[in-house]
Write a structure and sequence with these properties.
With 575 residues, the chain is of the alpha/beta class. Helices cover 65% and strands 11% of the residues. It is built from 21 helices and twelve strands. The protein has helices spanning 2-6, 12-44, 49-98, 101-107, 109-151, 153-200, 202-207, 211-237, 239-263, 269-311, 372-379, 402-407, 423-427, 435-444, 448-452, 471-484, 501-514, 527-530, 550-556, 558-567, 570-573, and strands spanning 332-339, 349-356, 361-366, 387-392, 395-396, 409-412, 421-422, 461-462, 489-493, 519-524, 535-540, 543-548. A six-stranded mixed beta sheet has the order 6-9-10-3-11-12, with helices on both faces. Strands 2-1-4-5 form a four-stranded antiparallel beta sheet, with helices on one face. Strand 9, helix 17 (501-514) and strand 10 form a beta-alpha-beta unit. Helix 2 (12-44) packs antiparallel against helix 3 (49-98), helix 2 packs antiparallel against helix 10 and helix 3 runs antiparallel to helix 5 (109-151). It is elongated. The chain starts with a helix and ends with a helix. 33% of the residues are buried.
């Protein structure tokens, strides 16, 4: 909660000014019953038209002033609240980007989105309402009681009785409502998660004809959220009528005892009207305070969820002596590396050792789940090893600044991610470069042909997720994006799977002519993709089974030989 309040500090001046204006509205509200009392007692009873017009004009002026104060207070309050949540949202987004991958995996995409949008919007609404209600309600309540006691102590005691009853009702209702309100957040996350999975996987759902199953799954999550929301509203539904009942009974009691006092001459009609107005103000103030207590559980839950994001610390540790640049040597070395995800006791990689020499192409092949992609993520420091070392240019990657390390890497992920915008904007994602570099990288990636086939060329728009391109085209654009930054190390994580054999061969030939001193590391499951590499590493269940050239592995590795003959003819294998 303290972290959230810090974001309000820069705008404290706006909040204070808004609070001052709100206080002025409360002053005008409290002044009106006294004026009304005089109008009734003097103007109406004594038939003094001039007095009625004079005091009525004052009431009108106060009402207009009250309106002006509320408009200004609302403006500055809203402005401060919007700026507060703008800064908060900006820092939360930055913290999410800076967090390690395992933290984001634990939190979940749906929850991250909901916390960054819905929860922060809840804080914005709560701060906006709490400031207004939290200032005006106590001031009017306390001020109204003091002014009411000045008129009649006996009748004012009715307010104390009403307060006690309302307090008991509020505690009873809120104690049941708070746990239900807190349960709404995780169920909202679940609805968002199911919805997101259905939107991103709509093609798979339709291909397998699972529309009804997914509708049923969404309905279950939606129904659970609906039932919890209804339960919360059922509890809160008692609050408004019960408080209204107490308020109306209090007003009836004031009328009853006030009429008795008027009969005995201890009370005037004007004082009775003033007491009724004070009752409305005082009990209305109590209801405003109660609304704050209704919002507090939601505000607290939302604040805690956002604070969890702000408290996230990158688990990828930085050494005290950080080197910002890579050396000229671009070699990659895995030295007895063991790694497992999260709290898992089963290592994904087990004592893995190999070297990718500078300026050469090294390929990694193995079955599904053998740890190929994990090797890529350890090089990029998405995760850190549990034991052993990963070295680039002879230095432990943990001693390199992450940004500088990745700046020298060209990474093509297994799952292609293109961003909304033009092809040129996507190719420039790795950094600024000229048109010649853009065309060169596209040509090497075998993407130039289909780019220029469209009249828009490099300005052709890419829809969300690149859905207006085929899988092979997206892979080639992703490869061109990695090449465009002229990296020291190129990492291909099964990035040729959607390419036909002819394009695959042409791309590898172009890479061979292109890379110079660049180290290339290719993860693949196709023998044709790796057979021409300078060195091939065979992984089997997280362990290095064999290392060598294509021809050497055909003799030394049964696994590699089995993969080769299962994918290629005997003539192709021995080429």
């Amino acid at each position: 909660m303290k972290k959230i309040l810090i974001y309000m500090k820069p705008y404290i001046g706006m909040y204070l000014f808004a609070g001052f204006l709100i206080m002025l509205t409360a002053v005008t509200d409290l002044a009106l019953p006294g004026i009304m009392q005089g109008i009734v007692n003097v103007g109406i009873v004594e038939n003094d038209t001039a007095y009625i017009l004079t005091e009525g004009g004052i009431m009108l002026a106060l009402t207009l002033a009250n309106l002006m104060f509320w408009i200004l207070a609302s403006y500055y309050d809203a402005k401060a609240s919007f700026f507060f949540t703008r800064d908060l949202r900006k820092d939360v987004f930055a913290r999410v980007l800076d967090s390690s991958v395992d933290q984001l995996d634990q939190m979940g995409t749906a929850s991250l989105i909901n916390r960054t949008t819905g929860d922060i919007s809840m804080l914005e609404f709560a701060v906006f309402r709490i400031l207004r209600m939290g200032i005006v309600a106590p001031f009017i309540g306390i001020g109204g009681i003091i002014l009411a006691f000045r008129i009649s102590v006996e009748i004012s005691l009715l307010f104390i009785v009403a307060f006690v009853i309302l307090a008991v009702l509020s505690v009873a209702i809120f104690s049941k409502a708070i746990p239900v309100f807190k349960a709404i957040f995780p169920k909202t996350d679940k609805v968002n998660r199911v919805l997101r999975e259905n939107l991103t996987g709509i093609r798979v759902i339709r291909a397998f004809n699972k529309d009804d199953d997914e509708k049923r799954r969404f309905d279950e999550a939606n129904t659970a959220l609906t039932e919890t929301s209804i339960q919360s509203q059922k509890i809160m539904a008692w609050y408004s009528p019960l408080t209204s009942l107490v308020m109306n009974i209090t007003i009836i009691a004031i009328l009853y005892f006030g009429a008795i006092q008027i009969d005995v001459g201890n009370f005037t009609p004007g004082e009775l009207i003033a007491m009724l107005q004070y009752a409305t103000l005082i009990l209305g103030a109590f209801r405003r305070l109660s609304m704050i207590f209704i919002m507090l559980p939601r505000f607290s839950a939302a604040a805690n969820r956002v604070s969890e994001l702000l408290d996230m610390k990158n688990t990828i540790n930085e050494f005290e002596s950080v080197l910002s640049l890579l050396p000229e040597d671009n070699s990659l070395v895995f030295d007895d590396v063991t790694f497992s995800y999260g709290q898992s006791q089963n290592p994904v990689l087990n004592n893995v050792s190999f070297t990718a020499e500078s300026g050469k192409t090294t390929a990694i092949i193995g079955g599904t789940g053998s740890g190929k992609s994990t090797i890529m993520q350890l090089i990029l420091r998405f995760y850190d090893v549990q034991s052993g070392t990963v070295r680039v240019g002879g230095m432990d990657v943990r001693q390199l600044d992450k940004s500088a390390l990745r700046q020298h890497m060209g990474y093509v992920a297994q799952k292609v991610e293109l961003f909304t915008g033009s092809i040129a904007e996507n190719l420039a994602y790795g950094g600024a470069f000229d048109d010649e570099d853009m065309r060169r990288s596209a040509k090497v990636a075998q993407a130039e042909s289909f780019i220029l086939a469209d009249e828009m060329g490099y300005e052709r728009r890419i829809s969300q997720g690149g859905k207006n391109f085929s899988g092979g085209q997206k892979q080639r654009l992703s490869i061109a994006r990695a090449l465009a930054r002229k990296p020291n190390v190129l990492l291909f994580d099964d990035s040729f799977s959607a390419l036909d054999y002819e394009t695959d061969a042409a791309l590898r030939q172009a890479l061979h002519q292109y890379h110079g001193n660049t180290t290339i590391l290719i993860v693949a499951q196709r023998i044709a993709t790796v057979m021409h590499a300078d060195r091939v590493v065979v992984l089997n269940e997280g362990r290095v089974e064999a290392i060598g050239t294509h021809k050497e592995l055909l003799d030394s590795s049964a696994l590699y030989r089995a993969l080769a003959y299962s994918q290629l003819s005997e003539e192709e294998v021995t080429v």
